[in-house]
Structure formats: structure tokens, C-alpha cells
Amino acid sequence: EDQVTQSPEALRLQEGESSSLNCSYTVSGLRGLFWYRQDPGKGPEFLFTLYSAGEEKEKERLKATLTKKESFLHITAPKPEDSATYLCAVQFDRGSTLGRLYFGRGTQLTVWP
Amino acid sequence: GAGVSQSPRYKVAKRGQDVALRCDPISGHVSLFWYQQALGQGPEFLTYFQNEAQLDKSGLPSDRFFAERPEGSVSTLKIQRTQQEDSAVYLCASSLAGGLMNTEAFFGQGTRLTVV
């Protein structure tokens, strides 16, 4: 059973068309939730860390929010260069490897001009 | 270096061959992780080092997989007698702190392993 679920799997947006990506997790005891961007053939690039419900972080056209069981990555007026796979990962407050990340499968975002 | 460096970027191995994948973490980073990423999937945890100590190897899929970080810096992931199901991208990540501190992990570009 997946502990981290991302939706949608794929999203196509026209340039300027705002939308949101979702990340939900099932295990209790969240230590931190991370958003990464991954371009084809490259490693994940860190975007945000969120630690507690109600927290929000922004970077350029991206805004990440966190509730008790899910996070949203809002993309405002996207541009073609925002096209990438967006990965969500969580760290749980249990076990010995507290830095271990549990990833979702990602949302593949395509922004066309 | 400026970031996490992995080599080689691409590796083609014949089934049954042994391979070694190298990771140079960011200088001074205590924690080092290896992940495996299959096509169209998110990365899956393999193993974790805090300095030279391998504290968690629960994600290694079989005893053919072995990782080391002898001096607490460079790490090597070795796969013996490779099989086709080992084909994937192997990602290395490092973070500044170890133990209970929660810091962002920086990833390398990965090594794409193809077993033929």
C-alpha cells in the first residue's frame, strides 16, 4: 500500500493556466514533507520543506501548503519552463532513519505555449 | 564540490556482471542516502550512512547489493551478478545533518544502469 499518493499522474496546462498538484499521505507522525522538481535525465531538485499543518512556502510561481493529511503545490500562471515531474516526499517520525524519504510517484506537468 | 556528483552517468552491464557506482557527496555532509528509481516511479530508499556508519540498509533488495562509505565521504554502491530487474536509475543524496535533525537532501544526477 502506497504511503504517499500524488494526483494527478499527469497534468497538461496552457501557459498562464493556474492549477494545483496534490500529495496525500496515510501514515501518522509526519516529521516533514518535501517537494522536489525532476527534469528528464536529472536528479530531483529541492523546492520546499513543510513541517506543520497550516504552513505555506512560496518560490516564484510555486506555492506549497500543508494540512494534516495532504499538501498542495499551487502553480500560478505557469510557463513552459515549469514543465517537469514534481515529486512529493515525506519523513515520518518513527524508526531509526529519520532522514529517510518516502516518495510518491510524481505528477508529470506539461505547460504548452 | 558544488553539488553531489555521481559516476558513471550511464552504465550498461551484461547480465551476471558486477558493477560499482560512485557518489561524491557535498563536502561536510554527514548523511548520505542511496535511492533506486524505476522508470515512471518515485525514488525508493536503499540505504543510509551517517558518516562512515551504515545505519540502515533495509531497502537493499537482495544480498547482491552492497554499499560502503569507508572514510565518511565518498560512497560506492556495488551490485554483484547483475540481473535485468536491477535496471534503474540509482540516485545518491546527501544532507548536512545526521541524527534527529531534519534538513533538505540534495540529489546527484544519478547513474542509469541498464542490464542486458
Proportion of helical residues of chain A: under 10%
> How confident overall, as mean pLDDT of chain B?
93
- What's the SSE pattern of chain A? EEEEEEEEEEE
Question: What is the multimeric organization of the chains shown?
Answer: heterodimer
Distance separating the two termini of chain B: 33 Å
Q: Can you count the beta strands of chain A?
A: 11
Tell me what the structure shows.
The complex is a heterodimer of chains A (113) and B (116). By secondary structure, chain A is mainly beta. Chain A contains no helices and eleven strands. In chain A, the strands form two sheets. In chain A, strands 2, 4, 5, 9, 10 and 11 form a six-stranded mixed sheet that branches. In chain A, strands 1-3-8-7-6 form a five-stranded antiparallel sheet, with no helix packed on it. In chain A, a hairpin with a 6-residue loop joins strand 4 and strand 5 (45-50). Chain A is globular. Chain A starts with a strand and ends with a strand. The mean pLDDT of chain A is 92. By secondary structure, chain B is mainly beta. Helices cover 0% and strands 47% of the residues of chain B. Chain B contains no helices and eleven strands. Chain B has strands spanning 5-7, 10-13, 19-24, 31-37, 44-50, 53-56, 65-68, 75-79, 88-95, 106-107, 111-115. In chain B, the strands form two sheets. In chain B, strands 2, 4, 5, 6, 9, 10 and 11 form a seven-stranded mixed sheet that branches. Chain B is globular. The mean pLDDT of chain B is 93. The chains are: A mainly beta (113), B mainly beta (116). Chains A and B meet through strand 4, strand 5, strand 9 and strand 10 of A and strand 4, strand 5, strand 9 and strand 10 of B.
